[in-house]
């Protein structure tokens, strides 16, 4: 049985995950509008992964005898100046999410809730990849000129 405190904290994380999904969907629309089909596809997949995180968290709460809820999701940014700016935002956002996951894990540790700790470790590991991927794209865009960005756009469109 999950504690009320941890249940509520996980429900807050569901809000953060859906917010992430909406943020990347918003970036996807921006990329598509600017003609970056590859980045747009990449962002849609990123968005779907974030929704999947929300589903996993909801299922976990329910399995542990808690109640999963969908609370109000804050509005996300809608405009960027360049793809670089959007990917910089992505990196910053993922760093913030990593901190949220760390706090959740600390709460699970303080409650000696081993099942929740086990569940949260996979997200800790995933955040390492998410941060590295986003910062890697930022670095590549910075190193390339504007003309080369179209090349990169095509490359990221083939994301699995
Ligand atoms: Fe996530
Ligand atoms: Fe993420």
TrEMBL record:
It is found in: Cytoplasm. Residues 1-145 form the Ferritin-like diiron domain. Its EC number is 1.16.3.2. It holds the Pfam family Ferritin. The keyword rRNA-binding does not apply. It catalyses: 4 Fe(2+) + O2 + 6 H2O = 4 iron(III) oxide-hydroxide + 12 H(+). Keywords: Cytoplasm, Iron, Iron storage, Metal-binding, Oxidoreductase. GO terms for biological process: intracellular iron ion homeostasis; iron ion transport. GO terms for cellular component: cytosol. Its main location: cytoplasm. The keyword Oxidoreductase applies. Fe cation binds at residues 17, 50, 53, 94, 127. GO terms for molecular function: ferric iron binding; ferrous iron binding; ferroxidase activity; identical protein binding. Belongs to the ferritin family. Prokaryotic subfamily. PANTHER family: BACTERIAL NON-HEME FERRITIN (PTHR11431:SF127), FERRITIN (PTHR11431). Iron-storage protein. This is Ferritin.
């Amino acid at each position: 049985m999950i504690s009320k405190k941890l249940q509520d904290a996980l429900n807050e994380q569901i809000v953060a995950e859906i917010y992430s999904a909406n943020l990347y969907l918003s970036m996807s629309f921006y990329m598509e509008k600017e003609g970056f089909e590859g980045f747009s596809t990449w962002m849609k997949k990123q968005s779907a992964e974030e929704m999947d995180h929300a589903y996993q968290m909801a299922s976990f709460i329910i399995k542990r005898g808690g109640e999963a809820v969908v609370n109000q999701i804050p509005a996300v940014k809608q405009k960027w100046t360049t793809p670089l700016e959007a990917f910089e935002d992505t990196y910053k956002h993922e760093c913030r999410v990593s901190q949220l996951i760390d706090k959740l894990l600390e709460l699970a540790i303080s409650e000696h809730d081993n099942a929740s700790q086990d569940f949260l470790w996979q997200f800790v590991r995933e955040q390492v990849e998410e941060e590295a991927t986003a910062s890697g794209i930022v670095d590549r865009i910075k190193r390339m000129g504007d003309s080369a960005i179209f090349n990169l756009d095509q490359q990221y469109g083939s994301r699995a």
